[in-house]
Amino acid sequence: MSSGLPPSVLKQLSDLDLELAEGDITQKGYDKKKQKLLAPYQAAAAVHASPVSDTNEGQKHGSVASARSSNSSAASVGAAGVDSSAAAARATQESPYRIDMTQSRAAAERAAAVRQALAKFQESQEPVMPMASKRASMSVSGSSAATSSASTAAVSASGVAAGQSSASRAAAAAAASVGLQRALGPSSASPSPSQESPPPVQQQQQFMHRTTPTAGQQVLPQQVPTTNAAGPGKAATPQSLAGRQHQPSVRPGASAARAVDSGGNSAASVAAAGSAAAQSAPVYTASNAPAPGPVDLGDTKVSAKIQQLLNTLRRPKKNRKPIEQYFADDQKEDAPADPNAPKPAGPMMSPFSSEPLQVDSSMPRNLEAAIQRYASKNNGKLPAISQVEPNGKIAQVLSYGKLSSRSLKLSFTLLNKLSNLKGVDSNLKPGDRVAIIIGHNEPAAFSVAFFGCLTACVVPVAIEPPSSRDDPGGQQIGFLLGSLGVTVAITTDSTLRGLPKDEGSHHIVQFKGWPRLTWLPLDSVSKPPKDWNPPSRSPPDAPAYVEYTVDRDGAVMGVSVERQGLLAHCRALLQSMQYREGEVIVSAVECHRQAGFWNAILAATYAGMHTICIPANQAKSNPLHWLHTISKTKAAFTLASSAVLGAASSRLLKELQNTNLESLHALIISDGTSPWCLGAADSFQQAFSSRGFQPDMFCPCACSSETMTLSLRRPGLGSRAATGRGIMSISGMSYGVVRVEEQISLSSVTLQDLGVVLPGCRVAVVHHRGAPVLCKTDQVGEICVSGVSSGTQYWGLSGKSNHVFRVQPVNDAGQLVGSEMYVRSGLLGFIGPGGLVFVCGTIIGLMELSGRRHNADDIMSTVLAVEPQQVVHRQRIAVFSMSVYREERIVVVAEQHPLCTEEDAFQWMTNVLPAVESIHASHLYGLALVPAGALPKHSDGGVHVTEARQRFIDGSLNPTSLLMCPHAAVLNIPEPRKAAAGNAAAGVMGDAITGNRMAVAVGKQLEPMGDERDAAGRYQYLSEVLRWRAQSSPDHILYTTVNERGQASKTLNCSQLLKRAERVGAYIADKANLSSGDHVVLLYPAGFDLIIAFYACLLYGFIPVVVRPPTSSTGVSNLPTIRMIVEVSKAVAVLTNHPIHRFMRSREATAIVDPKAMPPILETDDVSRKKVQAAYRPPTAEMLAYLDFSVSTTGVLAGIKMSHSSATNLCRSLKLSCELYPGRTLGLCLDPYTGLGLVLWCMTGVYSGHHAVIISPTDLETNPSLWLQAISQHKIRDTFCSYSVIDTCMKELGTAPVLEQLRDKQGVDLSSLRNCVVVAEERPRAALTTAFCTLFQLLGLSPRSVSTSFGSRVNVGVCTQGASQPDPGSAYVDVRAMRTDRVALLERGSPNSLSLLECGKILPGVRVVVVNPETRAPCLQNEIGELWVSSSHNASGYFGLPSDVNDQLTTEHFRAKLSAGGSASETFARSGFLGFIRHHEGSNRSSSTNLGEVGFDSLFLVGALDEALSIRGYRYHPIDLEATAVRCHKSIGECAVFTWTKLLVVVVELSAPETEALNVVPVVTSAVLEDHQVVVGIVVVVDPGSIPMNTRGEKQRMHLRDRFLADELDPIYVAYNM
């Protein structure tokens, strides 16, 4: 019927045949699809003929499809879990039309082992693994519609779908055992049983204000409150207080809405003020805290999956090895030997010698002579090489006469006519190297090229034609060609046509890493003159050719083979295989390298045989061509791979009716070392025993590029054909010991021998690492060969060549055993009885984990035995190891079948994990599925494992499904650290006695009020200072705004400020009927109006509360925060301008903020003149001056009180430190709504009288260079900015062309800038500031001008940098010591070093003590602790809490006392930040001040105490983990981390297409584990901008956590690491 089928149907049938041959489809599926395709044509044919039942019978009685088997397995295990041998027996009895391959012994072993492994967990009832969450747009194209719904829940422990077998259900439940729980210590995010009942102070933390979720958001009802990270002895800070309260306090009846703080950041939940609201909110206290036990995370999808992950990791980790001291040297130490490991018991082996090499005088003296001899016979028509076309016909017959003449033409052209080609300066000389780049489908042309080079005495190196410019491994090939000095490439016209060309031209692209080549087509060679003779024969030790090989790291090396070695190898093959002149050898493997090249090209030509080549891909897709060619030509020898044997074994019997294999003398299996060789051979023998094939025809061989053919089983009968098989223990071989088992077990593997070494060679087995000590007879090692017929060196690599090609075995005592030199083969195995060679792995595929050895092929065979038909492509899988934290980790990558759904892929992966664990006693680190055809391939179609490994490590593999298992695979992380017990007072006393310096830093002494040198210091209130300046210097300009070019646009002098402030104050007092002490919210954009309204409040005794207004960028998102601050601050009026007031009355705003619930909103744009009241003077300077509200990075909204005295003293301190005088111009480009920004904008200018040029950071959105232009225009010496400003300049202006345009065309010059202070409440960003200084040096910026300041909620000004102070310094500390709150200084560039920038110099009047947050005792200078501040400008306390709670928390945080080593009357404000102090005895960095001469103290900030992550007893800071994640992959733009229920969650923003989201998961997991020894529990990939930040550029991690747990984040991908 096929002759009448349309071409499209024929193509589909061909694809089906290929899928069946490769094992990508079951026989049942094959028959169904074939029947569906042929059904219409069978119905049409039924009119003319009777129905044919062959196809139906095949469908009805189809047996289990043949699967590729390893040494111990081949058959795959189906989901039904039925005994494969029984099913195969029934299928064989029922169907006479198909051969059954499952009866072979090797085919059933691994299948049974996997089946037992999955059934082992059936009764364990283990927890369920959570399935990764994936955005709908990322779903695989072939997935069903149910995929998205299935991804929201994990696979059920009772089975994924109805009808699923018990084995599959058991596998799903058993997979959880792979992810055994790590022995984690106490975590800051998960309470221990002893911490469930907080102290009495913590019971009242419910009153701390959190922001509410967005409207409609479901708050997690049963979240477990986090405990204090600092421990039970630490008083909670505002951040930590609300950090425990995950159930927000919401006003009854108030609409829940997401809030944005006054710094512009969104928060997770908003709480109303007052005890009534607090009492109505369900909160966790000591009475209602959850009891210890399983954690319940609520009913959200994310929470349910986290619960599943916790259940999976709950079991304790087994076999955890002892870990060396945490601060020991980082050099990898030898792992302690396993006391239960088997030991070799046999004697030391003796090298085994094969029979001597016999050289007959009738043999040709070399290959060139052999060609001439056979070319002279039969008039030169004796066939040499033929090729089988795609249609199965033999064509392109090359006779020995043509081979001789064409080789002579090529040699003449290379030596005499090459200079005529374009780009070639001279002809080649004997000994030069030349590349042969010819496709595998042109064996005749390749033979001509190779023998032509031999004739010309040039050295050829065969290279596969690259398919693209960036071919996998192509760059390494280019390095090899460059080291060989190759400039000419021999090719053919057809190969040239297939090479990639430059776009729009016919020129071949310049391949990456390749030298520039001149292409020489064989069709253009010149005919030599009759009197021309080739050069004389080269000496025997001259190189004949170079064969490339690849090591385990992907490096390409060239193995040099001498002429005498090439000749000896041909003679040894002739003697071993009994090749005869005129016989036919059919090769179904590639003929460019290794076994195909040595047998089908070299040995066959030397013997005068006829070689018929079938391209390997053609033989695998249609093995009938190979079988029919053998039968038709009565071939005596054939070469094939295991894949070809397996494909041939699956053919229908009726297709093999005319096949006869009786003429075969030997079938050489080219990949005899493959684990699928034994199963494929058994299946082939069963299938073709009735076709004349005998078992003794099998000749598997072991070979490598270094040794060439190492061993070969001899054909025929007799002692030379003795074969051996053995059932070996996988566990024993993993320890390098040979243990023979009597019967097949769960952990056994069957090995077959690969014959003996070639004639004239000796073989030995040595240790593969260290000295070449001979192994014992029952020990596995690296097989080495001594003889002439092998390679001699790696070209240009003398050191590596000595290690591989000049090995002299020694005994245990180190004494030489013989004088022969051996060559390492790269094969692992042992020598059996009679010198039989057994190979059980390769050095390239060797993976050593925890003292055990595993081979990649063995792992692959186990993986493929788990339901591969409908999930992965069987011949497209890569198994490799990658080094992560001192050990190798196993990773499996496979191509996913297009029709496989997400849930099927996940089910398959969860079945693979327990199978590998049970059989190999090892855990997989990662398991990834990629789209079909996505794995990098060699030119022959095989997977390029090295390139796949590198792409996985680099994060460029683009998987579609991924499962990382670091919790199960990583066993060598440090044990949890236990807190040291001790008495704080005794420790302080001991340090005092021993002379250890305490960590205390003191700023300059602040002169008392009324000092003559400070005229403004005579006044206690800023309002009095303003009146004094308006009287003494009314025209002195205090503030200037700039236009879009940085030029002055508006100014505000002292007199104008006072008059306008008095007018506004009188207006609001009259309009809103306000009195002194009333709270007023200032809702203004950054500008003059805000400053005027602030002083209007001070002049009339009102309490200003500055709040960030809504903007075009924020819209209505921060309205809930505005409403919350208005309520909590108890404001009686809101001052704003007309545009904002109009926005507040809009429909969008009123939908969120009820106007009736707000106090009166007053516009102050055009205030009429009012009678100014008498000047208001507070009764005492300790009265409240203003309230400062902001949301911290932990998501807590806290209001602090600043008195008039504190405000005035802060201005005095800043004036003295920064040298702020009336003649000084200061640049301000930071938000004026909170902290030091508010002080610099509204207070220091009036107090000090300096000129402030103000630039709103929002203006930089339209003109990023505005800040720099203002500095240049006004010659500003000192400026204050935020990290967001620095980051904007780096992103928008950070390129050389833009900077050159600013300098040349706009005249921007930053040479006047001496002091640029970055204001932030976080650790200084060393990398950002360093990059900014380096890049903007082009505009004249001094690299020492950028510094940082430090302030906190309790004291907004602790440190800053002045222009005349010593330059800001840095320190390199050991990150490992930081985790234990220690300071260990290192040299720059040292391993594990971290660069920290100092936060400036301590302000005058400030004393800072570093205190242990648990014991409240002072720390030493080499310790990290909480920064406690004693200063006259500390804040007074919290505002907005009930009186009893306010008094308690104010005492804890603003009046803290040391437990030892301090005065009983001295109180401190706890900053909530960790840091340390370095004292400098003297410095030459500045000679203009006494400070640099007498010494000074530098403050280094490490991080926020409440954001620190306590993991296994070590303290980690989010900024360090985030920095590691950001720099590990180019597609990660920003990162934030937090912990939840002992799991580390890493959220990364993806600056790449969604299809690349899964790339970052393994990279982030490995990087964090490598740098910080922390296992990442969850990796969340989100869109850019998803991580909330405030206007200071600080991340709002707690808000991010709340959004993630509430399913509001809309992530691209969520990976739950096992």
Please tell me about this protein's structure.
With about 1600 residues, the chain is of the alpha/beta class. It is about 30% helix and about 20% strand. A nine-stranded mixed beta sheet has the order 7-6-15-14-16-17-18-19-22, sandwiched between helices. Strands 34, 48, 49, 50, 51, 52, 54 and 55 form an eight-stranded antiparallel beta sheet that branches. It has a seven-stranded mixed beta sheet with strand order 36-35-44-43-45-46-47. Helix 32 links the parallel strand 37 and strand 38. The protein is elongated and about 130 Å long. The two termini are about 55 Å apart.
Helical content stands at 25-40%
Shape, please?
A: elongated
Number of helices: 48
Strand-residue proportion: 15-25%
How many strands in all? 61
Rounded average pLDDT: 78
Low-confidence stretches: 46-105, 140-298, 318-334, 1483-1493
What's the N-to-C terminus distance? Answer: 53 Å
In short, what is this structure?
By secondary structure, this protein is an alpha/beta fold.
